[in-house]
Write a structure and sequence with these properties.
This protein has helices at residues 4-9, 15-18, 26-35, 37-50, 55-90, 117-126, 130-152, 169-191, 239-252, 269-272, 278-282, 295-318, and strands spanning 196-204, 210-220, 223-233, 260-265, 291-293. With 319 residues, it is an alpha/beta fold. Helix 6 (117-126) packs across helix 7. It comes from Macrosiphum euphorbiae.
Length: 319
Amino acid sequence: MYCPFCIAFSSSATMFSKGCNNFKHIYEVVKIHEDSLTHRRSVEAFIQSTNEKSIEFGINNNLMTLKKNQILENIHVINEIFEIIKLLGRQNLPFRGSKNSESLYKWNDEDNLNKGIFLELVQFTAKRDATLYKHLNTAIENSKHRKANLEKKSLVSCGRGSLVTLLSKNTANKVILSIVKSIRDKIKLELGEQHFSLQIDSTQDVSVVDQAAVCIRYIYEGEVKERLLALLKVVDSSGNGYYNMLKQLFSEHSIKFNNIIGESFDGAANMRGEYSGLNPKLKTKKTQKPFIYGVTVIYSIYAYVILVKVWMLRIYLDF
């Protein structure tokens, strides 16, 4: 006697898949076989196949479910990272710590007390978020494993290589760029084809790199809007260099350069110089765009005048 279910779907040999000839106790043997785990699994596999759900379908379905859960977890982690980055941006706080403190394989080192505000906020949030906590611990373990493998092979690697953690500076930079694009798209939507005025001021950062802040002012729904459009690295600080930089910026974002009807910047020669400054290059034959000093310059003049008067008053009182 044979069991067709076990012959077709059993992963191990049974008495009934080879053929049972114990007819003297056939009822007892059949009952034992029907209650066995191997027979029940074979019957379940047969039912799945008759419902057009093969074993391969069941395996693939489980894998797809697992993959879907992983995707949802990654989306949740990215959403949390977005919120942290937006918080740091609103509060005007730096993101990164020192180079050695950001390595995940050094996360739990006793001397690694400050990992930078971004990673510290990730750790703080992970204590209250089970999904982020799981992701963070997995990333730390994977980083330690990768570091150990590199040391065994006597290799040195900068960064995280092909290890995807969603916590690196590259991920943070991509998130920032996506936020910048979203803000610029909204500015361009509000601006449309109307005229606008331009404000420019530049200064050096801590790395002694000259950066120019480009702001535009326009009317939207009856209100004056002043928006920061870009923060650009100044390669050529001459009037012609600024002009080419602005022209390229507006061309990249499909903003009409000829719609500028006013400028506001400091009184440096490269800005307001009569012949080689930025101001005369922005003027056209059709329109005479008004030029005014930047507000920061005016405030600086006021502050200087006040300091001089205070200094003269102190001299007077000493006498």
